[in-house]
C-alpha cells in the first residue's frame, strides 16, 4: 500500500476548506461596498457560477498549478495530486457530494378527488419497520380509525398521522406493504393533538414479559418484550391499559406497547398465590472469635422442639400480598461523604453467605463491618456487652419487639435473639459499609431512603455441582454461639436448591444482583466488583430514595 505524507495532505485539505469558506463569505463581505443594484446582481451571479466552484476540483486545480511549477511547494502539491489514491479519493468525494439522497416519493394518483377538502393525502417512505400505528373499527360507522401512534415510529416521525384519523383506503392492502413508498388517504380526526414532549418517567420491570405470548395485547408486533430488571422509559400513559415504552439499553427509537401497572396488577391478582417458603429459613447470632455474624440455624430435630424462629411482622407471609409489576426509578450516585448503601445478602442455608461476608471483612476491615445482635440471655464470663451481643432484659426485648425496633427476631431455648435497626444505623454512622444477611421477607422493611439496601441473592449451583464442591464442607446448623458442623447430605443439597428457587420466584423482584456461588473465590470477586460499582458509579434506585 502506498504511504502518503501526512503533512502535505493536511495542508492541501486545509487549502480546500479555506477556499470553500472564502467563496461563501465573499458576497456578504463585498455587499457594503456595492452601491448600484446591477453591480450587486453581477456579484451574486458570479459567485454562483459553477465554473468558479469547480476550481477546487482536482483536475482544474492541477491545471491551474501547472503554470507555477517552479515553486518547490507547488511541485510537492502537484506530485501529491497526481497520485492515483488521492485522485480517486477526491473523485469519489465529488461524486457522492453531487448525489441527492432524499427519498423520491411517487407522483400523486391521477384519480384523486379534488373536491374532498377534508381528506389528507399521506405519502410515506419507510423501511422494514412497522408503520408504528394501531387501528380500531368504529362500532357505529364501521370506519377504520387510528387508535394510537407509537412514539418514535414511522407514523410519529412523519407528523402527518394522528389518533382519530380515518383511513380511506383498503386497510389490509396498505398494511401489507412492509417497506417502500406508501400513499393513502386520511380523513383528519375532529381534533389533532399537539406534539407531546416525552415525559421523563423510568420504570424498573419486576417481571418478564413477552408480547408474543400475551393474548390481550391489541397488536403483538407493536409490543415491547423485556426481562425482569430492565429499565423502561415510559413515553406515554394515555391508555390506561397499554403504556408505550422504550428499553433504555436498546438504541431503537420506536416505542412499544407494554401492559400498564394497573392492568398487570389485575392480571397477577387472578393467578394462584405463590407457594410459601418452607420453614428452613434462619435467623442470626454472632461468633466473637472471628468478629463476624454467623447464621443461627435450626436443624430438623431442633424444629420439632422450638416453635419460634426469626420473625418479621409475625409472619413469613407478610410480603406475599405485594404484586410485582413496575417500580419507578431514577439515577443515583453516592456523593463523597454520604453514607454507604446497606448491603443485604439473601440465600438458602448452606449457600455460603457467611463465608463471603468473612472474606469482605478480611479484605478491608476499615471499610466493611457487621451489626452486633441483641439477646435476652445472660452474659457469660468471657463475653463483653456490645462486643458479642447487646445484652438486655427479656421484658425490654419484648418492648422493643412491640415498637418494631427489630428487623428480625426469634426465640431459642427461652431466650430472644434479634437484629435491630439501630445496630445498622450504628455501623453506617461510622462511614462503613454494613453487611447483613436476613430472610427475604424482611427486605421490604429496609427499602427506605435511609438504608438504600443493595440486595444480593447468593444462589447455589446445580445439585450435581454441589456434590462436587461441598464434598468436604461443613454444614453449620448452630445453637446459640456454639458452632456445630457436619458434612452435607444429599437432602441438604436438594433442599438448598429448592429453597433458592422458591426465594427467587417469590422475592426475585427485590434482588439487584444474583451471584451463583459455584466457586467461592469467583463469587467473592463478583460481589466485590458489584459493591465497587454501586459506590462509585451511577445506577438506578427507587425514585423515592433520591428525594431525601
Automatic annotation (TrEMBL):
Residues 121-167 form the PDZ domain. SMART domains: GuKc, L27, SH3. Keywords: SH3 domain, Signal. Residues 340-532 form the Guanylate kinase-like domain. It comes from the Eukaryota. The keyword Signal applies. Residues 48-104 form the L27 domain. Belongs to the MAGUK family. This is Membrane protein, palmitoylated 7a (MAGUK p55 subfamily member 7). Residues 1-25 form the signal peptide. InterPro entries: GK/Ca_channel_bsu, Guanylate_kin-like_dom, Guanylate_kinase_CS, L27_C, L27_dom, L27_dom_sf, MAGUK, P-loop_NTPase. Residues 198-268 form the SH3 domain.
